[in-house]
Structure formats: C-alpha cells, structure tokens
Amino acid sequence: MSIRYCILYKSYLFSRFPDDPYLAYRPPFARSLPVQIMLTGVILTLVAVLFIHLMFTAQYHWPLAPVNYVLQLSGVTTLLISLIATIHVVLSATFAESEKWPYMLSYIAVNVPPLDLESNTEGWSVAERATWLVMNASTSGLIQVRGLCSRCTSSIN
Prior knowledge:
Blueprint: H1 2-16, H2 33-56, H3 58-64, H4 66-98, H5 126-156
C-alpha cells in the first residue's frame, strides 16, 4: 500500500513540477566535492609513487645528471607538499561543514584558496592566500625549470 502511495505522490509531483528546481543550483560535475577529493587523491598517489621511485633510483640518476636529479626531486617534493596541504584543507573544510546543521556535506567543491577577497567566509587571511599562491608558483616554477634544464642538457649531448 505504501509503495503505491509513493508512486502516486511522485507522479503528482512530476505533474506539478516538470523540472527539478534544485538542479539549477547544482554545480557542474567536475566542480563537485567527490570529484575534487578523488582527483586530488589519485594525483597524490601518483606523485608519492614518483617520489619513492626517485628515492630508490638515486644511485643511477645522480651520476648521470645531478642538477636534473635535484630539480626533479625538489619539484616532486614541493608538489607532494602542495597536494598534502590541498587534501588537508579540503578535508578540514568538509569536516567543519559536517559539524553544523544540517550535518551534511554540500556537493560543491572547496575553493582552495578562496580568492574572492570581499566574501571571506572561510577565514583565510591575505597572508595565507599569498603563501598558498607562492607555494603553487614555486611548484610550477620548479617543474618548468626542470623541463627546460632537461631539454638543454639533452641538446648538448
């Protein structure tokens, strides 16, 4: 009896509201919290495996190109630190959100860092944002310099 009532009520709702009004406010799937956590975790895992690989093959890489190895190691290390900080910020914001009423998680991904200076609801100061952006810039810079140095040394040989 209750299943039939649910089906009738659902058909009644669909006849009154042909479109779900909440779907207009839902973010794209790529900007959702599950995708953000999954992709950050996958990239963190791959970078951790690359870091372990660099540690175990140091005896072979160092004699061949010490500068390239140092750049690789520093780039991977800063990327690993950046990803650990990112997953910490995302999970901390998710945990803090789950402690407030209605004790649920939103579907929207966490802005890391929030760059809208006017509506600072997460508590990020300007110094914290600047430090985060410097960390991202140094990670990108080390990775790009390593790519340029490897091209320069390969063209010399």
